[in-house]
Amino acid sequence: MRGEKDTTITSDSLVAPSQSLFNTIFLNICDLPNSLLIEILCRLPCKFVLRCKCVCKSWSTLISHPYFESRRALYLRNNCDNEQIPMFVVHSYPLADNTAELLTIDSNQTHAELRALDFLPSKLVVVATYNDLILLCEKTLGFQRKYYYICNPYTKQWVAVPPPPILFPQQEVGVGFIRDSDYRCRIVRLLEFDAEPDDFRLKVEMFSSETGKWIESVVLCPKRFRPHPLQQSAPALAYNGTLYWLGRGGILIGLEPFKLDNKNNHNYHCHFISGPRSGFPLFYDSYNYTDCLGVCRGCVRMCRLYTLTRFILFVWELKEDSGLEVDGVGGKKMKWCLKERIFLDQIKSQYMVPHPYWLLALDPNDEDMLYLLRRPSSSDPKDIVKCNIRTETLIDISPKLPLKTDVEAFPFMLSWWRWPTPVPKLGHHNNSSCPPQ
Hints:
With about 425 residues, this protein is mainly β. Helices cover about 10% and strands about 40% of the residues. The protein has helices at about 35-40, 45-50, 55-65, 65-80, 345-350, and strands at about 85-95, 100-105, 110-115, 125-130, 135, 150, 155-160, 170-180, 185-195, 200-210, 215-220, 235-240, 240-245, 250-260, 265-275, 290-295, 300-305, 310-320, 335-345, 355-360, 370-375, 385-390, 395, 405-415, 430. The strands form six sheets. It has a five-stranded antiparallel β-sheet with strand order 4-5-6-7-25, with no helix packed on it. Strands 3-2-1-24 form a four-stranded antiparallel β-sheet, with no helix packed on it. It has a four-stranded antiparallel β-sheet with strand order 8-9-10-11, with no helix packed on it.
C-alpha cells in the first residue's frame, strides 16, 4: 500500500506547478503538487471540502493551512455571488420532546430541506445564532443552572460553555450571542428585577470566551422602556457589534458587548429606542400583529404584519436621528423611519381564518421577500412559505411541520466565500467530528 504523503507544507510546495505536469496523461491525485491540489479543492463546495479533510492527514493539513483559506476566499470572491444564503435554524417544541433542525434553502430559493442537529450531546433548545454559529441550552426547572453549548452545524464542532450563575426569582427576558472579527464570543443574558418600587433595572450577565467566565452588571431602565414586553419568540439580532432585542410595540434595546462605559464596574453600552407608530388606534395596535426584526441589504429593519381585518404590512428602517428625544446606540441617536406600508389583500383572501400567517424572517438580500409561517387552520399542518410582497405570490419551500408544535426561526447566514467559523476554544468539553456525508 502506498505510504501517506508528506504533510509538511513549505513555500516551495505552494508555487505554481510546472507546465510539463499538464502533459501527463495518467496521474494519481496523491502525486499532485500541493499548489495544484489547492486550486482543485478551493473550487469545490464548502461542505465537500470539509468532507475532504477526512480523506487523509495530508489533505486535512493542506485544507487547514492559511494559504488554502486565502486562495479559496480569493477564488470565490472573483467567481461567485457574495450574497448571503438565507437559511434558518427552525426550532420546534413538540409535546414531549425538543428538536432543533437546520432548514437549508437551495440556490434558487424554491425548496428547503430540514436536517436534524443530531450530533449534539443531548436534545437542546436553540436560543440564539450568529452567522453560522448556534447557541443552545438545556432546559431546566426551578432555579437550576442553564447549561449552554456553541456549535457549528457545518463542521459538527461544539463546545460546552461554563455554567452561568444560578437563576433566582428573576425573569430571563433575553439571550443574545455575538462574535467579533478576532473570534471573541459573547453570550449575553438580560434578567429583569425590581430593586425598588420606582426603580426598574436590568441585570446583564455576560460570558466572555477569552476569560471563560461570567460577569454581571446592572442597567437602569427608563420607565417607558420596561422590558417585560420583550418578545420571547423574537431572537436577538446581532449586527455591527450590537445586540438588539425587540420589545412589544417595536421598543428596541441595544447593547454593545465589546464596549465598556466603565472598565472597573463592567458597565456596558445599553441604550433604548422608542417603538414606531402605525397610526392605528391603541386597542387595534396592541394584539393584532406580529413583528419581525432583521437585516436587509446592510440595514436593520422591522416588519409588522396586521392580520385581523386586512393584511397590512409596515416596514421600518433604523436610522440616525438628529433629534435629542430618542435614546440611541453607541452615542448615535436612532429612530424607526417608516419605509413603506403595503396592503396584501390578495394573500388575505386565500384563507378565511384569522391570523393564518406569522412573520418569521426577512430575506437578507431581497427587500421584496419575507418568510412566513403558514397555519391555514387548527387541524392543518404548518409550513414555511416565501412571500413576494410586490406580486403577493407565495412559494412553498418547506415540508409540512408537525401539527402540535410551536415553531421559532433563527437566522443562519453563510456567505459563499466565507469559511465556516470555528467554535471558541474554551479548554474543556470540546468535540468535533467529520462533516456529514
